[in-house]
Amino acid sequence: MDHVILKTKNVKKVYNADTLHAVTALHDVNVEVHKGEFLGVMGPSGSGKSTFINMISTMDYPTDGLVFINGKNVLNMSANEIGHFRYENLGFIFQEFNLLDTHTIFENIALPMTLAKEDPKEIEKRVVSAAEQLGIGDLLNKLPPECSGGQRQRAAIARALINRPGIIVADEPTGNLDSENSEELMELFEEMNRKNGTTIVMVTHDSYVASFTSRLIFIKDGTLYKEISRGDRTQDEYFSEIVSVSSSSRRRKREEP
Ligand SMILES: Nc1ncnc2c1ncn2[C@@H]1O[C@H](COP(=O)(O)OP(=O)(O)OP(=O)(O)O)[C@@H](O)[C@H]1O
Ligand SMILES: [Mg+2]
Fold this sequence. Notes:
By secondary structure, this protein is α/β, with parallel strands linked by helices. The protein is 39% helix and 25% strand. It has helices at residues 49-56, 79-89, 105-115, 120-133, 149-161, 179-196, 207-210, 235-255, and strands at residues 4-15, 23-34, 38-42, 64-69, 72-73, 90-93, 167-171, 199-203, 215-220, 223-229. The chain has a 6-stranded mixed β-sheet with strand order 6-7-8-3-9-10, with helices on both faces. The protein has a 4-stranded antiparallel β-sheet with strand order 2-1-4-5, with helices on one face. The termini are far apart. Adenosine-5'-triphosphate (ATP) is lined by residues 15-16, 23, 25, 43, 45-51, 95.
């Protein structure tokens, strides 16, 4: 459990640096993610959550500071090594789904396995089973634009899970799901985390969704401002603390002059 799998050290991210539109999205972020952990990331809109998630998953690189994967400095890894790491270890669920609109739901879900040149029979078997598990088994021949937001979200989730990755990085995975489907997804995450030891890093706005995590970090204005853990508490007790931390951060923001 105390193997650090992902780590940021004084990570700073400036978008459009050296222009009039420079935005410092992260200031000095130090976070360690342990193998087998279910870590949540919360914070107001624009606080830097997606940016943080992009840094730890090698989707983007910091302006300053270091990112380590399995103890290795990402900046010292070759593009090939990073590609390998992503491909063998990471399942992404993006805030904007990132499905290919000209490919069917089947092809979209199959993509990581197709890229890995896996056996078509095995691909078919796993795609069908993942799609059924997520309730989109009858949509496999449709194109993403023919599906609802929630259905596309579930296709993106199936795609992220298809390779059985050791780490899942999810940005608002329940953003387009109703409460029943959100709960089902969290139960699935919880099961993958407990049974398979899958490491999960998940951004969410939703306190109830957050109560499924084992630890939560709160980001505000690009800095880490609070961290809480579930510990031995019940989910209800943890949920209450999450609600109170979230609302106190909002209150403080409103009281600012
Ligand atoms: N590609 C980009 N170019 C310029 N600015 C960006 C870019 N991406 C994000 N930003 C800015 O960086 C800051 C942090 O954005 P980020 O997307 O990380 O926030 P977030 O916490 O994920 O918000 P949300 O909850 O709305 O998804 C914001 O001010 C945003 O406008
Ligand atoms: Mg975001």
